[in-house]
């Protein structure tokens, strides 16, 4: 038997939050407000807070949702731009951190590699690396809250293209945008048609000789005003918190209407989007060639372009769209399967993201590894068979933070219930192991399809359904009961206190 000083034991917190982006900062604010007596820490692998909005540095990077719903319910968005730049969003997030004193709990350069649950001790032992020094350490926590999103921060997705080594210019992925890149007077080809591509094209067109958006498959794209006139009027007439709440409610209703309309009347939605696109483009433009996706609206996320900037760049001749397949890269550009060659000085591969479940954290429960595809999501925030673990994934058909806010509220209600009843362990359990399941993210985007076999699953019934309906989630997560027949609460046997205040006994 050996003696270990208490000072040598791992640091312990009630809740350990992983990720200091929009989800992690929000989780910390809710936790601090609802449970001020609980200890917590917020670990961030990178050297700055802000997550996505600090990572991406490509020209024009902005939101693709309005900030009255992408922002927090508890903090008003007062910027005139409703669809905002990354700089404005980052300032908003860091202002939230400062106002709530979250900065004292944030630890930068802390990457979580693994977490081991002990039922005997009712806590997680978390393996952490200091990315700036390489030092490894252990932390323990009663609850582990993963707020790292679902894609890899260190690596974007680029498919294999023939002939890339022959190309004399620069090949850039938006996730790793170099600070020294200057597109002035250059010919640029942007490969892709998603949110990143439609943001880059008009931003680069301001300086480049010409920008070509090369797409294999078109995407649904809608113009939207970057400023919300309703919000501006509301701020003039009402206190800012009231104005924010009213604008937020209006935008939630609009998002819900558009999505439900597209789901119920896909042909009508397709015709409407085509009509709007045609009005923004020059007369005689081949709309059906470049803006007519083969799938129904909202089977993939719809791209929003503020103030029709993409369409304006095309109409001015500064940008163009080519729909074709790549045969090979050449010394001077890209050879297409149609035989056409696109000359370029810079090629940007806006070809998507790589997903990474739970930030790549390896979980074990009482020594047994957790195989994520064998788990099922409970209420969209916990995993079957995994105790005292929560995660945050937002909506794909509306603003991400709408869902995250509800999840954080429910998480705080869950902690309050456990405290009130003396529980230390909470574990979702499947009553029917043969229950049919389906992919966690019911979305047709390529970056999702590539990684479905690495993610947890969902079912077609509550509480194992990954809901994408804000009003349904409000009733379930904000107003519904915490207890559920599939949620098992228990209390562990607490070890005897050490005989001296600074010594713990270890076997």
Topology:
Layout: E1 2-5, E2 11-18, H1 22-34, E3 40-43, H2 52-55, H3 67-70, H4 86-100, E4 106-107, E5 110-118, E6 123-130, E7 136-146, E8 151-156, E9 170-172, E10 187-191, H5 195-205, E11 210-215, E12 221-224, H6 229-237, H7 240-264, H8 266-280, H9 287-290, E13 303-306, H10 309-316, E14 319-323, E15 326-329, E16 333-336, E17 341-343, E18 346-349, E19 353-355, E20 362-365, E21 368-369, E22 377-378, E23 382-383, E24 389-391, H11 400-421, E25 425-428, E26 438-439, H12 446-449, E27 457-458, H13 470-479, E28 487-490, E29 503-506
Parallel strand pairs: 2-3, 2-7, 3-4, 5-20, 7-24, 9-18, 10-11, 10-18, 11-14, 12-13
Antiparallel strand pairs: 1-29, 5-6, 6-7, 8-19, 15-16, 16-17, 20-21, 22-23, 25-28, 26-27
Give a summary of the structure in a few sentences.
By secondary structure, the chain is of the alpha/beta class.
Protein described:
The chain has 507 residues and is an alpha/beta fold. The protein has 2 domains: 2-153 and 354-490, 3-Layer(bba) Sandwich (FAD/NAD(P)-binding domain); 158-351, FAD/NAD(P)-binding domain (3-Layer(bba) Sandwich). Helix content is 28%, strand content 25%. It has 13 helices and 29 strands. Strands 2, 3, 4, 5, 6, 7, 20, 21 and 24 form a 9-stranded mixed β-sheet that branches. Strand 2, helix 1 and strand 3 (40-43) form a beta-alpha-beta unit. Helix 1 (22-34) packs parallel to helix 4, helix 7 crosses helix 8 and helix 11 (400-421) packs parallel to helix 13.
